[in-house]
Each structure stands twice: as structure tokens, then as C-alpha cells.
Amino acid sequence: LQKTNLDKAYPILALPYSTDQGRPARQPTCMFRSCLAMTECGVTGFDAWVPMMHDDPFYAIISGFDPDDIPGVGTFYDFQDRLLKRLRQPRTIQRRPFRRRTRRDKAEHHKDKNDLRPHRNIVNRLADRLLARPSKAPALSDALKGIADFSTLPDYQQTLQAIFYACFVSRSVDLKLIDLHNLYVAGDGTKLPTWANPHGKKLCTCS
User: Fold this and answer.
1) Within a domain: residue 170?
2) Nearest to residue 61, comparing CAs of 15, 2, 108, 120?
3) Which of 3, 26, 35, 98 places its Cα 20 to 30 Å from the Cα of 113?
4) What would the pLDDT profile of 78-91 be if each residue is shown by its tens digit?
């Protein structure tokens, strides 16, 4: 985390924010760095992470925040929704109004229960949803070279892939840790197609 430079991700992280409306936003790179620190510390929710930064200033400092000016839980949820391009929804659980139950005859109840209409057009809706999915993910070699077309991926995956390439892959290429002309990559578990076989036999000595 100390050696991670998120400056190249600033244009991507700042894009969801308006520059001429509302109050000034928190530094998006600090918000993203705080999310990385939260993950490295094994914390899975902002509700627990924000109190940890208040209790121990160390976590706020590694995130890039002033210990006396730490963002609230709602600010992190807002950043998450903007980053993943999700519609903001209220986090509070709406209580259902109390409804007094009326006594009904058991025979009438079972009659209504057995007279339910079958669900219609379920197969058609499932087929439309599957057909709307992207047919092919970008090739792994194109993604590493920075020429992959991520437009077929969902919006949030496009954003995360762009951040990953800008901050980590391109930096590794600059440091010559990755040679694009002599490269062997194992992409198991990623969104990109690979030749991985779960029934194959491991031949390498890596862990």
C-alpha cells in the first residue's frame, strides 16, 4: 500500500463527481486508498472501518486522511456507488406498517391458495436477460497491452479494469517487470477467457 501510486487513477476516480455543483468532494484517491487499506486489514464493511480509523489514527493516516477529519460511513457508501455506477438507494430498512389480520375460513384460504395463476413469460424474460449479456470478453493479451475493448463488460467492471491497468499493469511494464513480448500469464478466476482446466494436473512448482 505504501508503494502504490494512485495518481494515474485520479481522472477515472474523479469522473463521477461534478466540479461545479454541490459541496467539494473528498479526495477520490484517498477514498480509494482507504478502501484498499480496509481490504488489506481484513475488514469487510465501512460500518466497522470508519470507527477503526477514529479509534486508531494510524488507519486514517495510511488512507491519506487527517485524523481529525475522517469521512463518515455515508461518504464511503456514496463513493462506492459512484465508483460502481450504481443508483443510490436508501440504506435504512423501511418498516412495514402494522396490518391487522382478519380471520378467514380455512377452506376459503386453501381455495385461494390452490387457485394461483402460473407465472407467465418467465422463460422469455430469462432468455432476454441471457441474450443481453456480452457474448465475448476481451482477450487477455489485449488487456495487458492496454488495447482491449472493455465496452462489452458491465460499467463497474470497465471502471475497475481501467484503474487496475492504469495503476498496476502499466507501472509493471514501465519497471520492466512485465515483458509484453515474452509473457506467460495465468488468468484463472478472472473475467477474461483462459485455457484453465479444473480437472488438469499441476506441473509447475509455484505455490
Assistant:
1) yes
2) 2
3) 98
4) 888 888 877 665 55
